[in-house]
């Protein structure tokens, strides 16, 4: 049996006219009649009574109708499902990341995923944490590696890394030999900070404000290496994340632990109320399993 013959049978049932059904199906009336005759031959009984002016279903034809509808429903549903699977497997995973991927081994994780799933397409864009919520809500991204400090309960996150805010000074600074310093002792320093639209800037200002002073900020910029270079040359001091500074391995600057400690979680996040695509779910599960393995 050719399954589209059942669709043609149902068209005749609905329109009660071979000519109208043929027009709707874009086939000739003679072809439609042959297809219905083929069905009748296969089932072994007549489906339509053609002896009257109007076409009427025979009792056997009436018995076939609900089964024909079920078969066609399942057929069309299977086509849609297969198309969805194919679409999902080809769908690009849209990932956002804070712009310090190598500092937190995010690059390494992407490479591992690619080696395990070489046929899964993905796109990664860099954004500061302050922009991540809007990107999710605009449906511009599926997942994000971001700092979770300002995310609300609508996000589900897997903690990937934890970092802490530290004081960075030149090697000849008065506090260079300190292992720890209370942040209140820095109120007279010239601060070189990351740009105002970064979460680390907000974290730094908040830490100073909690110590009852407003930092004297003499420079803000987007590039950590520029700030470290300026510190080395004695232009000022900075509050940066520890792993940022360690990544550049500059022996001309000193890292000093702050008291009280200010930490920041870097996590892979998604919106709670959305269903991830097949490929995005693959990435989420891969990161989750990877973190369980390295614990």
Descriptive key words:
295 residues, alpha/beta, Arc Repressor Mutant, subunit A, D-Maltodextrin-Binding Protein, domain 2, eight-stranded mixed beta sheet, rod-shaped
Explain this structure.
The chain is an alpha/beta fold. It has three domains: 3-90, Winged helix-like DNA-binding domain superfamily/Winged helix DNA-binding domain (Arc Repressor Mutant, subunit A, Orthogonal Bundle), CATH 1.10.10.10; 93-160 and 266-294, D-Maltodextrin-Binding Protein, domain 2; 162-264, D-Maltodextrin-Binding Protein, domain 2, CATH 3.40.190. Helix content is 44%, strand content 23%. It contains ten helices and twelve strands. It has helices at 3-15, 18-25, 29-43, 59-90, 106-116, 132-137, 199-210, 224-232, 242-248, 278-294, and strands spanning 48-49, 56-57, 93-97, 122-126, 143-147, 155-170, 180-182, 190-194, 216-221, 238-241, 253-259, 263-271. Strands 3, 4, 5, 6, 7, 10, 11 and 12 form an eight-stranded mixed sheet that branches. A two-stranded antiparallel sheet has the order 1-2. It has a two-stranded parallel ribbon with strand order 8-9. β3 (93-97), α5 (106-116) and β4 form a beta-alpha-beta unit. α1 (3-15) packs across α3. The radius of gyration is 33 Å and the shape is rod-shaped.
